[in-house]
Amino acid sequence: MADLLSYAEKNELTFKFDRLIAALRNLVQSKGAYTLADALDSDAAKRKVERWCALELSPEKIVSNVDNVIARKGDGAIMSWQYFDRVFLNLAERKATVHGIAGR
Q1: Helices 43-54 & 82-102, crossing angle to 10 degrees?
Q2: Burial class (CB in 10 A: 0-12, 13-18, 19+), 70
Q3: How high is the pLDDT of residue 100?
Q4: Are 80 and 33 in contact (CB under 8 A)?
Q5: Collapsing DSSP states into helix, strand and coil, what is residue 31?
Q6: 8-state DSSP, 57
């Protein structure tokens, strides 16, 4: 089966993902969360960010939620992107529940 995405579309998706990673890195560095910034180089952290994108969250929403969570918990309280993974999965569940109720 031929690839469904054109070369240009694949490049655009890669560009958007790289910009999201850079925005997250800049955000956590500005908050002094250097452990989180360094962890963004790992494949595991990038897979988490890919999963958040698959939840149909905009890059702006992802960055905003990370910023809000860091502000609420404190810049040194979160040492892993795994914490944010739970936050985004819970957000997606709530969104699905609201859409399910609205569709009744």
Answers
A1: 10
A2: buried
A3: 58
A4: no
A5: coil
A6: -
Three-class secondary structure assignment of 60-80 = HHHHHHHHHHHHHHCCCCCCC
Q: Which residues contact 40 (CB under 8 A, 6 or more apart)?
A: 21, 24, 25, 28, 46, 49, 81
The predicted-structure confidence for 39-96, as pLDDT tens digits, reads as follows 999 999 999 999 998 888 889 999 999 999 999 988 678 889 999 988 898 888 887 7
Contact 67, 29 (CB under 8 A): no
Degrees (nearest 5) of the Cα angle 67, 75, 64? 5
If you ran DSSP here, which 8-state letter would residue 2 be given?
Answer: -
Q: Minimal CA–CA distance to 92: which of 42, 58, 45?
A: 58
Type of residue found at 69: V
